[in-house]
Each structure stands twice: as C-alpha cells, then as structure tokens.
Predict the structure.
Amino acid sequence: MSNIVNSNAMDTAERAAEVLTRGGLIGLPTETVYGLAGSAASERALSKIFEVKGRPVGHPLIVHLASLDQLDHYAQSVPQTAVSLVEACWPGPLTLLLQRSRHVSDLITGNRHTVAIRIPANECARSIIAMHGHAVAAPSANRFGHVSPTTAEHVLADLGENVDIIVDDGPCTIGVESTIIDFTTPVPQLLRPGGFALEDLEELMGIHVAMPDGESRASGMLESHYAPKGKLQLVDSLPDAISIIRAHSEARLIDHWGNLPLYAASLYAQMRQADKDGVQLMVAINPAPTGLGRAIRDRLKKAAHP
Ligand code: AMP
Ligand code: MG
C-alpha cells in the first residue's frame, strides 16, 4: 500500500497537520521541489529528517512558514531591506538567511547563528503549515546527494515508507530549489541560485547582490550534489550535443533546453527517468547564465561533477 495521498481530498491538510503534530514526517509539495517536512517544534521529527535522508547532521535545514507574521518568532534583527524584499517576493522560491531567534533548534541551524527561511508559494503546503501552527523544516525529499524529487512518485521511490504520508499535488511548477540570499553579511550574498531570478531580486532591492565568500555555508554549494547515477556530459551548443550523440548512439539528450521554465521544471524528472531506463550517458546543453538559466547551469554542473 502506498502512503501517497491526493492534495484535493477533503481531509488531506488535516491529516498532514496531525502527522506533523505527533512528530512524524510528510512529503510536502512546494513549487520548487518536494520537501521532507517535519515540525520545527519537534526535536524527534528534526532528527528523523537527517536519518531518513541520510543527510549529515550539521547541514542546516530551511524553515518554511505559512505567513509573514511567523517570521519574528524564528528570526531576529531582520534588516529593513530583507523585510521589503520578502513583502514583494513571498510566497515564492526565495530563501533568506537571517539571524536566528532562540526558538530555532540547533538541529535546524546546524549550530549556526543563522537560520534559512522561506514561505512556499504552493497553497496546499501553506495550508498544512498554517493548520499545524508551527513552522516546518523541510529539505528536499531525496536521499542526500541524489536528484531532488519533483513528483510524489519520486519521493516514494527515494524514501518509501520512511515518510508517514506524501501529499501529491502534481509535478512542481518551478522544479529547481529556491534562491538563497544571505542577509547576515554587510552586502547580501547569493548562496545558491534558484527559482527566483537574481536580476529580479537586484532590481527590487536596487543593489547588486555579492557572490559568496568564505567557507561553504550551504550544502547547495558542494561541488557534487543533485547527481543522477548515469554520467552527465555538458555542452554549450546543440551542434556539440549532436556530435556526442552521433558518436554514442545510446546517449540521451536532456530535452527542453530552448525553454528555460520547462527546462527547469523537467530537469530532475528527466534525469530520474534516464536512470530508470538505464541510460549510461546523458547530454545537456548549458543555458546562458542569466535568469533561471543561472540555477539550471548550477544544477547541471553539480549533477555532472564526478
Ligand atoms: P535543501 O533543503 O536540500 O534545499 O538545502 C537547503 C539549503 O539551505 C542548503 O544548501 C543548506 O546548506 C542551506 N541552509 C539552510 N540553513 C542554512 C544556514 N543557517 N546557513 C547556511 N546555509 C543554510
Ligand atoms: Mg536538497
């Protein structure tokens, strides 16, 4: 029997909120990727997230809120530029790194002074979080290092019965993880390109966001991550892709490279399907590093890293 429940069923949000309240884990649909969500108020649930994912403790988790009025409970000294930005961008695929409040578990922050927070655009996710009454911590619902899930079936394939229920709200509309901006540095820094275009954020703020310095602060900054089983080769043009496919008849081209939103939304599903089909060599065309192309390039690079 599968633990997938349909988001449209009358009692789904209630059932999911109940699971959260008793310290269980749910597969949470969001517009970026499916999350493995546990209550931010339950140490047991937070520990289980690391166990189930095989994620090293110390890799911090993103806190997901239902509404802006919860922000002050989890973060403190939020800069005015950050407040204005989230008023314009939330709910949406943007995560802010802020100073943590004392209410945030060390398991969430990995013992840091900072906490990563966002409000997801997916309405079903927000109603579950609102009904639970606390924030949830939700990393992507995949085994650590693997390709992120963009459907409920992907979550089931990676985590199976270790998740109490998986709420199926169809394929994720954006398909790559959120953009992470660090607001604890003097000039905000881009920790991870993602579903929210950097250019749009910069225009809203009227300043340039800096590239990250210092040690890696986000697991999204590891060199290898989001990786399929088959080898992925990256090229910069269609003719280059064609010559590889001519030389290796069994190679598969990752499709939709001409349409960035569709490329992002289908990327992980295509890698997972190729693995399922036993494809040994995938070929993907790098998009230009602007807009959503920046996040797609980043994920392709990490997926291609040996
Ligand atoms: P995922 O949950 O797989 O989308 O990954 C969450 C990302 O947020 C990872 O890259 C984390 O390292 C990053 N993150 C979450 N909290 C923090 C924090 N306090 N400091 C730095 N990075 C964080
Ligand atoms: Mg992840």
